[in-house]
Amino acid sequence: MADNSKIKVCVGLSGGVDSSVAALLLKQQGYDVFALFMQNWHDASTTLHGECEWEEDRFVAEMVARKIGIPFYFVDLSKEYRQRVVDYMFDEYEKGRTPNPDVLCNREIKFDAFLKCALELGADYVATGHYCRKDTVAVTDPDGTGRYIYRILAGTDTNKDQSYFLCQLNQEQLSKAMFPIGDISKPEVRRLAHEADLPSADKKDSQGICFVGKVDLPTFLQQKLKPCEGDIVEVYDAFYADNEQYSFQKTVLESLLDDASAELNMITNYISDDKVQSLDSGACPFSEEKIAALSDEQLLGLSQPFSYDIRFETETYRSGRKHIKKTRYKENPYGKIVGKHDGAQFYTIGQRKGLNIGGHKDSVFVIATDIVQNIIYVGEGHTHKGLSRSCLRIIQQDIHWIRPDLAMKSGEIRRYNVRIRYRQPLQKATVIMRDNGLYVLFDTPQRGITPGQFAALYASDGEMIGSGVI
């Protein structure tokens, strides 16, 4: 058995059961372990509970450290968190994009500001309670030099795999990272916590924004983004029948089919992340040769979200016995103004809550937002055409390779499994690198491809190769 006593590991102890068991396992494995709790948020007025949740978390974390028998330290990183995570969130929402604060927190705080603090305290590694795995592989550079590369792999528990949240880490950060619970399941983590009588054994999993807590997002964003009333426009199916952009994308996708007689599907079968099946064994419906022949302009057009410019004309009419003159909108076959909102920047694609629109048989979802005109476009039902897209683009400066040795060159095409949301099962896709960006063409249409979110690329063995901002 290896002597780990000379290896000093700092555990990011949050007060939750996952980081608690991570610390417990490292202690049992003989490492020189200490706990470091970080406070990243002060303002309790923004949380739904209206309480300083971090104070309770710190209390539990300190009890866990005492129970395991490891030193406990505290660091306040709230300034760094506000500057590097929260301010970025505000900026992205103001632009009509939807960021992922958990991905940013890991890249900018846990494995940067927090890591530096841990190293100053003498740590050799930083361990967290993420459900993911890390290993190393030997590679040989073109000049014949050998070296080791660090890999991130999906967690063994597919229901809790959290590798997606680490999709922006680099090799230097990974060299100092440890994930002790990545190869065990959540129920087993709970069992180990109960067996060791840890104070966090029955603590519920945290929800909401990383280190802020559960918040009402519009209220949270209104700290910096001002409300501004605008129209909610429902888009009818007739819009797509006459829309050049939709017709273009349909024509291009049909031209790519490996079987020319096959029927193209433009609408996702998505209902919710919990009801979508994982990877199927079906072959890619598109021909790689035909994909390679696409021009940059065709790929760009294929990846663009639908643009809605539905104009509403007014007309005057007389109403009632006194024939009072009133104004109303003329009927439009493409859509209708169905309500008002407090600001397009507070809404995201795929959202259905908070719209306050009645009179529909099925749920109504946000399909697009126009920040400049302050308009929200919505559609009825999961099968609405505006919810589905087959292709996305990541611009060059937003492409991040966890494995720099596997970075794609312009003109290269690969098959990867892709995830565009944390809870989403992996989806099969063809990935195309061009000079103007990286394109992801899914085998089946995807619901709610959202600008500002991260797309993570996985190899067939579960290794996360890279990621980028949509």
Explain this structure:
There is one protein chain. Strand 16 (about 415-420) and strand 17 (about 425-435) form a beta hairpin. The chain has about 475 residues and is α+β, with helices and mostly antiparallel strands. It has 11 helices and 20 strands. The strands form 4 sheets. Strands 5, 6, 14, 15, 16, 17, 18, 19 and 20 form a 9-stranded antiparallel beta sheet that branches. Strands 3-2-1-4-7 form a 5-stranded parallel beta sheet, with helices on both faces. Strands 11-8-13-12 form a 4-stranded mixed beta sheet, with no helix packed on it.
Strand and helix map with partners:
Elements: E1 8-12, H1 17-28, E2 32-39, H2 53-68, E3 72-76, H3 78-94, H4 101-120, E4 125-127, E5 132-140, E6 146-154, H5 171-175, E7 177-178, H6 186-195, H7 217-221, E8 230-235, H8 238-241, H9 244-256, H10 288-292, H11 296-303, E9 314-319, E10 324-329, E11 335-341, E12 364-370, E13 375-380, E14 388-394, E15 399-401, E16 413-419, E17 427-434, E18 437-447, E19 454-458, E20 463-469
Helix pairs in contact: 1-2, 1-6, 3-4
CATH superfamily of the domain at 8-221: HUPs
The appropriate CATH architecture of the domain at 8-221 is 3-Layer(aba) Sandwich
CATH topology annotation of the domain at 8-221 = Rossmann fold
Percent of residues in β-strands: 25-35%
As a percent range, the share of helical residues equals 10-25%
Count of individual beta strands: 20
